[in-house]
Batch of 3 targets.
Target 1
Amino acid sequence: MVASPTGSWKDGPVPPTSPIGLHRVIDPPGVLPQAARVLDPDPTVGADEVRVRVEALNLDAASYRQLEQSHRGDGAAVRAAVLDIVAERGKMQNPVTGSGGMLVGVVDEVGPESPLGLHPGDRIASLVSLSLTPLRIDDGLARWDGRSERVPCDGTAILFGRSIAAVLPDDLPAELAMSVFDVCGAPALVARVVADRIGRGLPTVVAVIGGAGKSGSLALAAARATGATRTIGVVPIEAEAVSLRGADLADAVTLADARDPVALADAVASVGGPADITVVCVDVPGCEHGAILATAEGGVVIFFSMATSFTAAALGAEGLAADVTMLVGNGYVPGHAAYALDVLRGSPGARGLFEARLAREETSP
Amino acid sequence: MVASPTGSWKDGPVPPTSPIGLHRVIDPPGVLPQAARVLDPDPTVGADEVRVRVEALNLDAASYRQLEQSHRGDGAAVRAAVLDIVAERGKMQNPVTGSGGMLVGVVDEVGPESPLGLHPGDRIASLVSLSLTPLRIDDGLARWDGRSERVPCDGTAILFGRSIAAVLPDDLPAELAMSVFDVCGAPALVARVVADRIGRGLPTVVAVIGGAGKSGSLALAAARATGATRTIGVVPIEAEAVSLRGADLADAVTLADARDPVALADAVASVGGPADITVVCVDVPGCEHGAILATAEGGVVIFFSMATSFTAAALGAEGLAADVTMLVGNGYVPGHAAYALDVLRGSPGARGLFEARLAREETSP
C-alpha cells in the first residue's frame, strides 16, 4: 500500500496516488474516502485511476427517502439539495444517512497503472458506493425531476486503484444486470465455499434462508452449479415457496420463520438437513440462532443479511456449543460481477425471478 | 437434533431430552433456553444431562452493575433480588440486561448419554452462560453479602447434551484458569486458522490488534505455537507495548489507534505486514476498516471484539475491494478450554500478563 502523499494533489509533479484514494481526501485529512467530509473530484486521472463519464446515478434508497421526506416531495428542492451536496462534498454522500448509491457510465480515460482492466468506451456500473466516489456534475441535473432514485446526469467520477466496476453486458438489459450486480457477492462467495469443501472432501448440503430473493436465488443457483450435493431453499410464506418451486432452483423448498430458531432448524432437517453450508439472505433481524442451529457440526454459516447482529451470532454459537465457521458475507470476491451474470445466464429459473421482480417494481407506485 | 418432546417433563417414562435443553423450557414453549422466561431447574438429570453442585456463581458484570445500581448498593436487597430471579425463572438471567454469567461447581451426576466426558467429582467452570442454565439455589445465598459479582452458593445446575464445561486444572489457581476460560475461544480459533493455512501452503503473518490483552496475548502465543511465520502485536499505548515486549509474545510490537484505519494499516506494514491473518481483540468500536486494510489480499480477519459492527465489516471490505475472509469469532471450538490452558502453561510471557492483571484486579476498588 502506497503511503499517504505529503503534498497537495495539484503541486508540482504528480505525487504518488493511493490505491484507496487517500490523495483525494481534502477534509479531514488522513481519513478514508468514505469517512471524509470532502473529496477532490478533479477529473484529471492519477496513474492508477479511471475517469468515468457518468450517465446516471442510482441513489441509495435510504438516501433518497430522506431527501424526499425532508423536502416534502418537492422535486426541484430535492434536485437542488443533491447539487449542493455534490458541489460541497465532491461526492454524493447523504450527510444524514451516510449512504450513497451507485453509478452507471462510460469509461473515459484509464490511467496507465490502473489494475482494473477497463478500457475507454466500456459501459460500467460502479460496485463501490457513491459515498466514497469523487464526483463532479456538469449539467445541473437538468434531466432529473427529483422524484425518483434514478438520476440521469452528465458528469465525471473517479475510480481508484482499488475499486470495483462491472462492465455492463451486451446481452442483458442494463436494469437486469444492475439488479444482479446489487447482490453478486453472494453467489460468488457461496461458490467459493462450496468448491473449497468439495476440494477437501467435506459434505455440501446447502440451505439458503430467503431462497426466493435476489441474493438467495443466485446463491442457490451458484451452489448447484458448483456441485453442492443438495440445495434447500427456505422461505417465510407460501407465495415465495410457489415461486421458488416454479423456478426449480433448489432440490427442496421448505417454509419457516427464520426468526424462530427451533422452527427453522426443524424445517431444514425435514428436507435433508442439517445443512453443511447455511446462507442467510433475509434482511430481518433475529435469524442468527436459527441459522446456527440449522447447520451441521463442522459446517459454515454465511451471513449476508445487513440485519445480522455480530454479537447474536458470536454468542449464539457459543451458547449452543456449535462448532461452525461463521463468515461475514463479504460483498466482494474478485470476478463476482461477471460470475453472477454467468450464473443468471445459466439459470432460467433465477432469471425468471429477477425479471418478475423488475416488472413488479415498474408497476408499483 | 432430537425433536421437541410432546409432553411435560414429569409425565410417565422420561421423554426424550433435547440436546439444547428445549425440554427444560416452561415459558414460553418452543423457544431456546436463552430466550425463555422460565426454565425447569428440577435436579433430576435427563439421559444426556449433567447435574452440577454449584459452589459459586460469577454474575456477568453488566448484570451485577444493574442490580447494584437499582438497589443503591444495598447488599441484602441485591441478594433478595437474585433469589427472586432464580426462584421465578429457574435460571440466573438478569431480566433487564439479559445477561447471566457463569458458575463453578462439582459434577454431581452424569446422565448415561451425556457426551460431555465429565465425571462425578470433576470440579468445573461452565462455559455456557447462566442465562440458559437451569439453576436452583438451596442456601438462600446465606454466604453472599450482595456486594460483589462473585456469589458463593449452594445449589444445583443442569448442563445439557450440547454444552461446554471446562474441568478446573489441578496445577493452576482457579482464578487464573477461569480468566483463561473467559477468552479461550480466541487462541483455539487462531490456532485452527493458522494450522489450516500452513496445511494449504498459505502465508501466515499474524497481527493481533490488542495483543496485550487476555485474548490477544493468548492469540499471539497460540499463533506462534502453531507455527505462524511472524507474529505482530498492535497496542494503543506505550505502557502496553512495554508489557507486551516484556512478555516476549510477538516478533514485533507496534503502536496504533485501531480506530484509525490508515494508521493501523501503516503500523502493521511497518513491522512486517500486511498480515495474512488479522485478529481483532480490542473491544472498542470502529476497528473494522483498519483490520481489513491491514490484511493482505487472500487473508483472513477474525473478529473477536463484541464491539464489532457486522455492517461496518461487510461494507468496509466491499468499499475497499478487499478480498479477505472475515470470521465471526466463535467463542467455541471443541477442546478450546483445555487448549487455552496448555497455551498458557507453555507461555511464561502470557502467564505473566494474566497474573499481573489478576493482581491488579484484586487491589483495585
Target 2
Amino acid sequence: MRPPTEIKYGLPAAAEVAGMTGREILQAIIDGKLPQAPISQTMSFWITEVGDGFAAFEGQPGGHLLNPMGSVHGGWVLTLIDSAGGCAGHSLLPVGVGYTTIETKANFARPITEDSARVRAEARVVAQGRQIISAEAKVLSSDGKVLAHGTSTIMTLGNTK
Amino acid sequence: MRPPTEIKYGLPAAAEVAGMTGREILQAIIDGKLPQAPISQTMSFWITEVGDGFAAFEGQPGGHLLNPMGSVHGGWVLTLIDSAGGCAGHSLLPVGVGYTTIETKANFARPITEDSARVRAEARVVAQGRQIISAEAKVLSSDGKVLAHGTSTIMTLGNTK
Amino acid sequence: MRPPTEIKYGLPAAAEVAGMTGREILQAIIDGKLPQAPISQTMSFWITEVGDGFAAFEGQPGGHLLNPMGSVHGGWVLTLIDSAGGCAGHSLLPVGVGYTTIETKANFARPITEDSARVRAEARVVAQGRQIISAEAKVLSSDGKVLAHGTSTIMTLGNTK
Amino acid sequence: MRPPTEIKYGLPAAAEVAGMTGREILQAIIDGKLPQAPISQTMSFWITEVGDGFAAFEGQPGGHLLNPMGSVHGGWVLTLIDSAGGCAGHSLLPVGVGYTTIETKANFARPITEDSARVRAEARVVAQGRQIISAEAKVLSSDGKVLAHGTSTIMTLGNTK
C-alpha cells in the first residue's frame, strides 16, 4: 500500500489511454503511470486493485469529511461505493468502450469517525448484460467489519454491437 | 445567495445546539450563526433553505470534483442528495432527537462538468413514521433541468417514545 | 372506476399493438380494447390512467396477498410501483420502441391489511435520457396517505437512434 | 425439494409461534408444521432453507405471472428478493422480536419467461445493527445464472433494548 503522499492526481490525456482496455487503464492508475482522479485528492481515496469484474479502493477518513454531527459524511461512503462499483464494471470493457453510471444505492451500517483507520471498498460485478452491468460493493473497516454496502448500475457507451 | 467565500466551516459545540429543534439548528447554519460542516468546504456545497420537511442546498462544480473521465464524480451528486434528504428529515425533529441515515439511493440523469453553473439540491419528506423518515431529493441545474434524483431514509435516535 | 370483475386478462397479439405508441397501447388496455396483463388478475391490480410520462394503477388488497405476519406482502407494493413506473416511461415511447426495466427500489411507509380499501399507485417520469428513463411512484391509501414510494429505471429497446 | 402441491398455505395462530425464535418459525414453515404464507400460493414461491442470517426460496414461473409484454413481471422477482431478504434477517431474531421491512431495491439482470425452470432466491445478512438489518439477495436460474439481485433493509420491533 503506497502512502497517499506519493500519489499524482489529474486527468489523463485522451492519447494516453487510446488503445487500452478498461482494466489496463485502471491498472495504469494503480501503477502510477496514469494519475488518480482529482476527486481522489479532494476526498482522500484511491484505487488500489483491479481484476476482471473487480476493483478495490482505499480511503482515509479525516476532519475534512465530517458532517454537521461530527462523523464522516455518508456521501464519502457513497462516493467510495460509486467509484468501486463503476470501476469493477469498467474493468470488463474492451478498448474504445466507455460507460456512464445510471444509479447507485447504498446502506450505511456503522459510523466512521475522523480518527477511523483507513477503510477498504471492494466491488464485484454481479451481472453483465449487453449494455448494463451491475456491481455490488462493500466498505470495510481495517478489522473487516462491514461499514456500508451498495450497488451501482452502469451502461456502456460506444462501440457496442 | 451568499458567496461561498463568506461561509464559516466547522462543527458546533454541543452547548451551542442544546435546546434547539432540528429546523432551528439548520436555520442557524444558513444564517451563519453556526458553521457549515467541514465536508461542505471540501466538496463546495452548503445548505441555503430549510422548512418543515424541506431542505435545499447549493453546490459549485469545479475541477476538484472530477472523476477519471473528466466529469463531476457521481459521488458529489450522491453527497448532495444524502445531505438534502437527511436535513429535510432533520427539520422535523424536536429538541434532543438526533438521527442517523440508513440508506440513500439515487439516479444520475445528466452529466455535470467542471464548468457547469451552480446546482440546487432540494429534498422533501415523503413519509414520516414513528422512527423512520424518508425524503425524495432532486438535483437541478441552473435552468431547472433534473440532473439527478434520489431518496434517503433516516432513523431517529433518542427521546423517541 | 370499473369493478375488477369486468376486466379481461391476457396478452395482446403482436398484430393488435402494431403501429401503436406506448401511450396508445396503455390507453387501449384501460379502455378494455386490449386485455390487462395476467399478473393483474393474480395480484388484483389494474391500470386506470395514462398521460405523457404518467400512469396510475389501482389495487385491491385481499387475503391472497398476505405475508406470514398477516399483512399485505411488500412484494405487492413493489409490483405496483414497478408497474406504474414502467408504464409512466412506456407512455413516452414512440411506435416500435419497447423497454426493459433495469431496476426498482421502494420504501414502505405504512402497513396495508387484508381489509384495507383500494390503493392507488401513480408514477411520473422524472428524467428522460436518450435510452434511460426514470420515474418516481407513490402508493396512496384511499384517504391520500403515502403507503410506499419508489423509483423505477427503464431502458428503451429497438428503434433508438 | 418438495413439490408445491404438498404445501399448506395460511397463517399461523399467535399461540403456534409463541416462544419460537425467528429461525424456528421459518424452519417450522419449511418442515410443513406451519403453513406457507397466502402470498406464496398466489405467486407460486415458497421458503426452502433457513440458517443464521440466511434464507432461500424457490419460485415457479408460470402464465399467471406475466406482464403485458409476455415475460414474468419484475414484481415477482422483487417479491422473491423482499421475501428472502426479510427472512434472512428474521432468522436472527430472538423470541418475541418482530420486524418490518423498511425498503427493498433490486436490479433485473435477465428476463424470466413463463416456461423458465424453477428459480432459487437466496439472501444473506450483510450487516446487523441494534435495530437495522440489511441483507443481499440473488435470484438464480436453474443453471446458476443471476437473474436479479437486490437488498432489503428491515427494522426490528419489540423487545429491543
Target 3
Amino acid sequence: MGKGILHYDVGEQIELFLLIKSATKGTASNGKPFLTLILQDQSGEIEAKLWDANDDDEKSYAAQNIVKILGDVQSYRGKSQLKIRQIRRTGPADGVKLDDFLETAPLSIEEMQSELTQYIFEMKNPNIQRITRHLMKKHHKEFMEYPAATKNHHEFVSGLAYHVVSMLKLAKAIAALYPSLDKDLLYAGIILHDMGKVMELSGPISTVYTLEGNLLGHITIMINEIGKAAEELGISGEEVLILQHLVLSHHGKAEWGSPKPPLIKEAEILHYIDNIDAKMNMLEGALERVKPGEFSERIFALDNRSFYKPVFHK
Amino acid sequence: MGKGILHYDVGEQIELFLLIKSATKGTASNGKPFLTLILQDQSGEIEAKLWDANDDDEKSYAAQNIVKILGDVQSYRGKSQLKIRQIRRTGPADGVKLDDFLETAPLSIEEMQSELTQYIFEMKNPNIQRITRHLMKKHHKEFMEYPAATKNHHEFVSGLAYHVVSMLKLAKAIAALYPSLDKDLLYAGIILHDMGKVMELSGPISTVYTLEGNLLGHITIMINEIGKAAEELGISGEEVLILQHLVLSHHGKAEWGSPKPPLIKEAEILHYIDNIDAKMNMLEGALERVKPGEFSERIFALDNRSFYKPVFHK
Amino acid sequence: MGKGILHYDVGEQIELFLLIKSATKGTASNGKPFLTLILQDQSGEIEAKLWDANDDDEKSYAAQNIVKILGDVQSYRGKSQLKIRQIRRTGPADGVKLDDFLETAPLSIEEMQSELTQYIFEMKNPNIQRITRHLMKKHHKEFMEYPAATKNHHEFVSGLAYHVVSMLKLAKAIAALYPSLDKDLLYAGIILHDMGKVMELSGPISTVYTLEGNLLGHITIMINEIGKAAEELGISGEEVLILQHLVLSHHGKAEWGSPKPPLIKEAEILHYIDNIDAKMNMLEGALERVKPGEFSERIFALDNRSFYKPVFHK
Amino acid sequence: MGKGILHYDVGEQIELFLLIKSATKGTASNGKPFLTLILQDQSGEIEAKLWDANDDDEKSYAAQNIVKILGDVQSYRGKSQLKIRQIRRTGPADGVKLDDFLETAPLSIEEMQSELTQYIFEMKNPNIQRITRHLMKKHHKEFMEYPAATKNHHEFVSGLAYHVVSMLKLAKAIAALYPSLDKDLLYAGIILHDMGKVMELSGPISTVYTLEGNLLGHITIMINEIGKAAEELGISGEEVLILQHLVLSHHGKAEWGSPKPPLIKEAEILHYIDNIDAKMNMLEGALERVKPGEFSERIFALDNRSFYKPVFHK
Amino acid sequence: MGKGILHYDVGEQIELFLLIKSATKGTASNGKPFLTLILQDQSGEIEAKLWDANDDDEKSYAAQNIVKILGDVQSYRGKSQLKIRQIRRTGPADGVKLDDFLETAPLSIEEMQSELTQYIFEMKNPNIQRITRHLMKKHHKEFMEYPAATKNHHEFVSGLAYHVVSMLKLAKAIAALYPSLDKDLLYAGIILHDMGKVMELSGPISTVYTLEGNLLGHITIMINEIGKAAEELGISGEEVLILQHLVLSHHGKAEWGSPKPPLIKEAEILHYIDNIDAKMNMLEGALERVKPGEFSERIFALDNRSFYKPVFHK
Amino acid sequence: MGKGILHYDVGEQIELFLLIKSATKGTASNGKPFLTLILQDQSGEIEAKLWDANDDDEKSYAAQNIVKILGDVQSYRGKSQLKIRQIRRTGPADGVKLDDFLETAPLSIEEMQSELTQYIFEMKNPNIQRITRHLMKKHHKEFMEYPAATKNHHEFVSGLAYHVVSMLKLAKAIAALYPSLDKDLLYAGIILHDMGKVMELSGPISTVYTLEGNLLGHITIMINEIGKAAEELGISGEEVLILQHLVLSHHGKAEWGSPKPPLIKEAEILHYIDNIDAKMNMLEGALERVKPGEFSERIFALDNRSFYKPVFHK
C-alpha cells in the first residue's frame, strides 16, 4: 500500500486511503459544526479537522468508514495534523478492505497459537495444565483477536495474544536463570492473567469497556472463570487457589487494582514480566518515531516521561 | 458469675475463673521461660505473666483452658495487668463451661435470625431475593456464629450477624429519608457484603485467617459465591452483576481493598453504613471503659485517636 | 412555567424565558468578541454562546437579567448546549420575576423553620440550647436563604437550611439506633457546623467567597461566633468548648480543613452525617438526569466517578 | 553548681543533686516493680532505673523532688544512662532549690521584655500596635514564662518568649533586605503567632496539654483572643482579619494544622522565620553534644535525620 | 522608553516597540493559520494573536525580532491580551536594540561582581576559598549573565548572579544572629549551589534545557565540577566532600531532586535561604501587579496560591 | 564442617564453632550487664544472649572472634534463638579460620571475573568499552570482594560482583527477546551501576557506611568516577553523558534516590533488571528457610510481605 501515513513528514502532500477510527462533532468558534477525524492505516494514526461539516458529512464520515483523502501534513502544537483538501468515501470500486487498515500483532494468529500450545504442553502439573487448557479453549477465538488494552500498550488486533506470547518467552529465559521458579505456575499465570479482558472489553476494534468490565474488571471476572473451570473439571487442589491468586495479584498493589499483593514467588515475578513487556512495547512504539538525538513524545503510562534516543543509535 | 474481670480497679484483689484466650512463651531477661497469658471472661480480657513457667505449665495453661486465679490487678504502662498469686486448671468439679467466658453479641441468634428473615422477606426483586436467601441458607450456621473480624470491631461470637443486623436497621432508617434508594439492593448488599468472612476466617473462637483468606480475601471469595449461586439458580439478569459490584466495592477505594470503587448509588451508601456501624462499635467499646472527663485508649482503626468523654456526660 | 430547560432533549427547539446566571466575554479565533452565557431556570442550567457580541450585547446580557430565547438544544462534547436563534431582554410587560428562575430547596422556609425550632426545643442541656438558639436568632435571615456551598452540593437558595434539616432527621434516626449518642450535641453541632457560611459566602445568588471567607473560612469564623455567644450569654461550662470542637472538627481531617480531628464521639458521627447528606444530594442530582442503563456525568467531589443507573431501576 | 550531668562521660562516677523530671513505675521481667526516673539539671537530662522500688520509694522519688545521687554513667543502646548506687531525697539542709535545676532561656525575662516593648513601640499602624499591646499585656506573665513546646524546640522555661524575640530579630534583618515587607505585620504576627500556647499548655514545668489545647489547639484559641481584643478595643479594620489570618496560617499547610495556607506575603515569610528559628534551636541543641567528625543523635522533627559535624569545625 | 507594556490598563491603546519573545503557529477553527506572539519589554510581557498569518508573516515575526505595534489592551480570561491593529518589523532606522527589551537584574554586573568578590575575600578556610574562587573564575562570564531558571523565579538576564548576591546578604544577616553557623561554608555553598545552571541551561535568552541539563541536571553537573576543581588544585580535605554535599542536598528532599537531604547544619540553612529568596522574588513579582484590596494571579510554584494585598498597603 | 547453624530445628542441641558477627552490651532488668551476640557460619546467623557478662566476657566475645558453643536452639517470638550452655574462645589449636564462617557468593571470584571479562569483550562501542574496562581495572579488588549492600539483598562477601554477573545474564536473555536494546549500554550500565559501593561501604565484612557514602552516596560517587575516567582516557562523546545518566537514574525515581528518572530505554530496562535480581535474591533467601505449606518471615524490602510456599512445591 505504499508509504503509511506515519511516515510522511510535515510539509509533504498525501493522497491516501485511510480508515476513520473515530469522528467527533464539534462547534467551531464561528458557530459552525466541524468533525474531528482520527484517521488510521497500519502505520499509525493522524488527526484531521473537517470544517463546515453538514449533516451528510456527519453520516458519510462516521467511524469505520474508509475514505480517500488528498491533503497536507502540517504541524499543530508539536503533533502532526492532516489538512484535508479533498475527501471522499470509498466504494467497492476502490478495492480496499477494513483489515488492510488495522494495526495487528507482528506474529500471525497461527504462529502465536502454536507457541501457546507448546507452553501448555510443557506443563508438568496436571491440575494447572488442565485448567489452563480448558480456559484457553473456552475463550479461544476472542483471546487470539482482542487487543491487550484500549490504549497505552498492545492496543492492536491480537495484542492480547502477542503480549502473552512475549511474556512466555521472557518467563522461559528468566526461569532458566533462577531454577527455583515453578515454570508451570509462571506459564499458566501468564496465559490467564489478562484473559478476563475478553469479557472486560467490547472487541478487537473500536474497543470500549463493557458494563461487566466497568463494574467488576478483568481481574475479578477471571477469578470467577478459574473457579468455574475447576468446578467443571472436578479439580480442587491448592493449585486452583494459587492460580486465582496469581491472577488476583498481578497488578502488584491494591492501589493498582490487586486487592492482594503477590504472596507467592511466581506471582511477584509474573508482575515484573508483565511490566517489562508492557513498557518495552510502549518504549519501542514511542522511539521508532523519533530520530537519533531527539526526545520522544511524552508517554503517559511511563510517568509522562519523554525518552531520548542517543545520537550514536543511528 | 459476679463481677467481670474488666470491672475490677487497679489495686483490687480478684479470685475468678477465667478462660485462656492465648498463651505465648517467652524468655525473661534472666534466661528463664515465662508465659504471657491473655485471660478473658464475658466482660473483656486482661494480660498476665506467669514467671518461671516449666514444661508442665506450658501444657496446663494452653489456650482454650479455663483456670481459677487468685491475683491482683495492677497497672503497667497505662494498661491493667493481672499479677498472679495462685493459678490452677479447672476440672469437671468446678462446673464452668467455655460458653460462659466468651463475649457474644447482645442479641440472641434467634432474634437476629428472625430479623434477617424479615428483611429478606421484604425484598421485592425476585432475583435479588432468591440469591440472598440461597447464600444465607448455604452459609447459615457459620454466618450466625462467626465474628465480623479478628480485631478492631465486632470481634466476638456472632459479631458478623450482629453487625449485619445493625446495618440493616440503619439502612432502613436512611432509606426512609432518601426514598430514591433501592431497599432491595441495600438489604441484599448488607447481608452479603462480609459473608465471605465465613471462609476467610477460621471460626468463631481463636480466630485466624485461612489460606484462602490470606491469598484471596473475603471480597473475592464472595464474588465467586454470588456467581455460583446465580448459576445454580439459573439467574442471569443484571442483578447478579450489581450484587457482585456491591460486594466488590464495599471497602470504598482500591487502597482499602476494593478494586472497583462504588459506581452504584446503593454501593456508595452501603460503604457509609458499614463504616458508621463499625466505628460506632469501636467508639462505644472504647468509651464505656472511661469516666466522664477522661480520654479513652487510642483506637488504632480510628487513626489512632484517643476520644474524650465530656464531663457533662455523667 | 411549562417544561424546564433541563427537560428538553437534544434536537428539540425551545422558546423560553431564562435567567442569565453568568456572562463571560471571550475572543473567538476569528478575532471577534462573543459571550458565554450560563442560562438557568428552576430545572437547572445550560450553556449558550452568543457570537459576534457587541458592546450593547455585553450590557444587555449581563448576569441577573432575564431573557427570552428562541433556540435549539444541541450536543457539544457530550453536554447539552443551547444554539441561540433569537434573544431579547425582558421588560415589565413580560411579567416574569427573578424568583421564578432560581432553584430553591424543596421545603419552604416556613417548614424548615418549624423543624429547626422543634429540634432546638427538644434539647435538654440548657447551655447547649441557649447558645444554639442565640446564634440561630442572630443569623436567622441569612441562614434560611444562603446556599450550603457555591458548587458540589446544596448549591441553591436555602440550600444551607435544607442541608441542616436533612442532617437533623438523619441524626434523629441514627441516635434512635445508638442510644449512647448525646442528641443535644448532635443537633446543636449540626445546626452550627456550617452556619459560618453566612459570613464566608456573599449571599444566596451569584455566590462568591468574601474576603473573610478566603482568609479565615467558615469553620474559624464560627468558632469565634460561638465564643462571642457564650460570653454574651455568660455561659462558661465545658459545653462551649465541646460545641467549638464539634464545629472545628467537622471536616474530619487536617488536610480537609479541620485542624483538630473529631475527638468526641458525636463529632465523629456529625462528620459522617454531613458526608452522607452531601453525597446523597450529589448522587440524586446526577442520577435524576440519566436513564436506566446509563452512566451519569462525572461527579468531581466523588473522586470524579461516573455512576451507573441499573436497568431494573426503571 | 559544678559540672552538669550532661558533661560527664560514660564510665565516670557522679555525685550530684538532680531534679526528678518524671518517674514512671514498671514491672521488671522478674515480677518486681521498678521506677524509671528522668533526672535533670540545667545542663540537660539523663535516664536512670531504680530497681526493686517499694511503695515508699514511689512516694519519695516522685516528679518535682530533688534528690542526691551517687552513681555511674553508663551506655545503654547508644544513649547515656545513670546507674544509681545511692539515692536520697533532699531536705532544707541541702540548700538546693527548684530553679537551680530548670533549663531556662539564655536571656533574662527583663532583657526579653525590653526587646518586645521596643518592637511594639516601632509599629506604625495604630490598630496593629494596639491589638498586639493589649494581648501582650493580658497574657504577660505566662507569655514570659511558658516554653514554646513540650518537646522538639525551645522546650524550656521562657522558651516561648525567647523564640519570639529571636524571630523578631530575624524579621528585622530580613525586612531590611526586602523593603516591600510590612514590618508592623511581621512583628505583630510573630508576637501573636504562638501566644495561644499559654492556654494550650499547662505551665512552664512538667508541661502537658490542657483540654482546650487538645480540643481546639493554640491557633484556634488565639484567633478567638484577637477577635475579643479587637472588640474590646473597638477596632474593626481589615487589620483584625489580617492578624487573625497571620496566626491561622503560620503552620503553612492544612496537614500541618493551618486550615488556610498563607495568603498574605508577610504570612508566608512569618512561616519561614518560625521554621528557621525552631530548626536552628534543634540543630544547635543536637550538635553541641557531639564532637567534630561525629554524627548527632537523630532529630525527630527534622525527618529523623542525624547531622554531621565536620572535622574542621573544631 | 516611556511607559512599559505592563503598565497599560485594559482599554488603553498602545503604540510601542516590542521584542518577540516567542512565536507559535496555530490553526484557527476556521482552518486558517495564526501566530501566537509573546511580546516583551523590560516591564514584562503580553500575549497577542496575529490572525490570518501567511508564510511571510511567519518569517518576519519570528522570535528575537523587534516589532512596532499599534494596538489595544484587552482582557481575555482574566489576563491582559494585546489586540494588534498594525504591526511592522523594525529596521536600523528605528534605533532600537535587543538589550533595551530584556528584563535584567536590578543590580549591574559590576556591582554584583564586586559583592561576590568581597564575600569570597572574607572566607577564612583556604580550601573552601580556593575552590570557590577557581570555579567562579572558570564559569565567570556565564555566571554573571544566565538567569536562575527558565521560569518561576529570577528568570531574567543575570538572574542567577542576582539570586546568589541576595542570598549572600541574607546569609550574612542570619549568621550574625546564630553565630554557630560557619560563614565560609554558607557563602561558598550559596555561590556554588546553582552554578551548574550555566551548563544545564542554554543561555541568557530564549532559555531552554541542554541535553546535559535534561539527563544529569545542574546539581549532578556541579558535583563533578567541584570534584575536578579540587583535583586541579590538589585539595583533598573534608572540605571538598562537604562542599559537594552542600550542593547535592540544597533542594532539601529526594523528591525535590536532592538524593541526600541536608546532613550538615549549614546545608539545612542554605536550603532555607534559597527558598526565602526565591519565594520573595515570586511574591514581589506577583504583588507589584495588583492594587491594594486585590488578589494576585495564582503562583504555580507557591502551591498555585493567589495572594492578597491588604487595603492598608496603599 | 557438618550441619550449619541454620539447619538445626528448635529443640535440638548444638556443639559448633561460630563467628561472632556483632556483640552489643545491654543491662538486664535485674540491673546486670549482658551481651547480645549475633553468631554466624556460612549457613546463616542466629541470636544468642550471654547473661551476667563481666568485663572479661565483653573483651573475649567481641565481634570477629570465633567461639565454640554448646547450647540449645529455642524459639523466641517466632524466631530461633540460641541458649548458651558453654562458650569459649577458640585458639590456634582449634584449626578454624575466619573465611570458613563467612557467607560468600555461590560463584568463585575467578568464575565471575571470567564472565565479566567476556561481557566487556563483547562490547562494540569503543568509548563505552574503554570506560568500563578502565573503571573495572581501577576498582578491581574491592569490586570482586564487596557485598552489594549492608542488608536486604546480596549482603555477603563478593555479593556485588555476583549481583552484577546475574544481572548481565538476565540482560543478555532480555536483549535477545527485544533486539532494539543496545547491549553495550546495558552491559556497561550494569557493571557500573553499583560500583560506587566500593567507596560508599567500608569493606566486605562488618560493613558500614563511609562518610562519603553518607554524605554523597554511591550514585553520586560513581558519576564522578565516570567523569574522571572519561577525562583520563580523553573520551568526550555522548557516551560519557549517557553512561552517567544510566548510573544516575538506576533507582528509577527521585524519592528512591535518582534525581533524574530513566530517560533512555536502556536505563529503564537496567532499573527493571536490577529490581528482578535483587528481589529474586531476597525471595529465594526467605523461602529456602520454610517448608511447603508455610509462610516465610516478613521481608522488609518487599513491603514487609510474608510469602507462601505452595504445598505442591515439595
